[in-house]
UniProtKB/TrEMBL annotation:
Residues bound to pyridoxal 5'-phosphate: T99, S100, D199, H202, Y224, W254
Cofactor: pyridoxal 5'-phosphate
Protein name, entry field: Kynureninase
Gene it is expressed from: kynU
Residues modified as N6-(pyridoxal phosphate)lysine: K225
GO biological process, one term: quinolinate biosynthetic process
Quaternary structure (record): Homodimer.
Pathway per the UniProt entry: Cofactor biosynthesis; NAD(+) biosynthesis; quinolinate from L-kynurenine: step 2/3; Amino-acid degradation; L-kynurenine degradation; L-alanine and anthranilate from L-kynurenine: step 1/1
UniProt keyword annotations, A-Z: Hydrolase, Pyridine nucleotide biosynthesis, Pyridoxal phosphate
Length: 397
């Protein structure tokens, strides 16, 4: 590979089979947006879809939108669209609440499926909400939480064996971008009869997932990052079909009832994934997500993955070539197959550097301790964008 330069970046862009997809997103002129791992860019089809939903559906059909326009089933229909990206057969994914709410629901449901076990393992360094919720679930059910570094998760499972009810972890580390082996950790858990709950916030839409094939029990995630569902877009929850009949979730709201309009006081969950619904969903936001998902009908996840690995490689090589001696430390694995769609650099002046980048129209973000995160969404990021960032990083150190 020659030393990365603007010319090599432009050549790579000309050869990029996905470059045209950039037109499907509305990005401010002149901005380089590398924060799509936090909030994805606006998909151009979304405003019209939401406008139609408001004016044509809600405005004209009022209460009948739930039946006439099929809105009651939108959580399941859009759930299946997300499920396709998870490697899930239809009928195992539903969208509705935030990742946090879904996580609370399935962590509790999973632990209830292992009533004689007292331990809940949580990935050390995982997203804070996951720790907070695991602690709450543990208080409610009388469990003990253990924080385990991901590299030790499989061996810890072997050591603690049948004491572990549930293990929960993110497939991609939100700080470092490190990608974990979903299949291997799931197998290690199942070897000792433990159930797994994966957090796919930083993985869905960024890489091909194979939840059914990997035998995953439960998974949750958000849709506002690589899926571009919009701020506060509904999260999703996946539950393998084999568990549906036994799921006893704590948030047993009426949308998950077998006969919601029977208006009876006793809860009877609907068969299937619908039981993981809770209350009235934020349907307008869900329809924004529905429109944002259209782009995934026209692209293979293998091509998305191939490009974000190549973008990451290009970034890392450019950092090596142009930022040596500037105080940056790469904290993301160098190997493309060991990282998600984000590269993180540590620097003692991270906050000031990000402020300087922002002034030049470059968006990334900073997470403690001193980590500059750059997300590479294959659908709208170019090699030229990446070279622009590396040049800007050089200018502000
Ligand atoms: C890995 C991870 N899990 C959970 C969350 C929380 O999601 P939510 O705010 O949708 O509950 C986030 C992001 O906010 C996240 O990055
Ligand atoms: N969900 C967010 C929000 O509601 C406001 C601001 C940022 C977020 C994020 O998604 C943060 C993100 N999960 C992270 O990886 O840090």
């Amino acid at each position: 590979m020659p030393t990365p330069s603007r010319e090599t970046a432009e050549r790579l862009d000309r050869a990029d089979p996905l470059i045209a997809l950039r037109e499907r997103f509305s990005l401010p002129e002149g901005m380089v947006y590398l924060d799509g791992n936090s909030l994805g860019a606006l998909s151009v089809g979304v405003p019209a879809a939401v406008q139609t939903a408001i004016v044509e559906n809600w405005g004209r059909h009022l209460i009948n939108v739930w039946t006439e326009d099929g809105w009651w089933d939108v959580p399941l229909r859009v759930g299946d669209r997300v499920g396709r990206l998870l490697g899930a057969q239809a009928g195992q994914t539903v969208v509705g609440d935030s990742t946090s709410v879904h996580l609370f629901n399935v962590l509790t449901a999973a632990a209830r499926l292992r009533p004689d076990r007292r331990l809940l393992l949580v990935e050390e360094g995982g997203f804070p909400t996951n720790h907070y919720l695991a602690a709450s679930v543990a208080r409610i059910l009388g469990l003990e939480v253990r924080r385990v570094p991901m590299p030790d998760m499989a061996s810890t499972l072997r050591r603690l064996g049948e004491r572990v009810a549930v293990v929960t972890a993110g497939a991609v580390d939100f700080r470092t971008g490190e990608l974990w082996d979903v299949c291997a950790v799931t197998d290690a858990a199942h070897d000792v009869g433990t159930l797994v709950v994966w957090d796919l916030c930083h993985a869905v839409g960024a890489l091909p997932l194979t939840l059914d094939a990997d035998g995953v029990d439960f998974a949750v995630g958000c849709s506002y990052k690589f899926l571009s569902g919009g701020p506060g877009a509904p999260g999703f929850v996946y539950a393998a079909r084999r568990h549906h009949g036994d799921i006893d979730q704590p948030l047993s709201g009426w949308h998950g009832h077998a006969e919601p309009f029977a208006m009876v006081p006793d809860y009877e969950p609907t068969p299937g994934i619908g039981r993981l619904r809770v209350g009235s969903p934020n349907i307008l936001s869900m329809l924004a997500l529905d429109a944002a998902l259209d782009v995934f009908d026209d692209v293979e996840m293998t091509a998305v993955r191939e490009k974000n690995v190549a973008l990451g490689d290009f970034f890392i090589e450019a950092v090596d070539a142009h930022l040596a001696g500037c105080g940056f430390e790469l904290v993301t694995p160098r190997r493309g197959d060991r990282r998600g769609s984000q590269v993180t650099l540590r620097h003692p002046e991270a906050e000031g550097i990000m402020r300087a980048l922002n002034k030049q129209g470059i968006m990334g973000d900073v997470r403690p301790p001193g980590l500059l995160r750059f997300g590479f969404n294959s659908l709208y990021i170019s090699y030229t964008d990446i070279f622009t960032v590396v040049e800007a990083l050089r200018s502000c150190t």
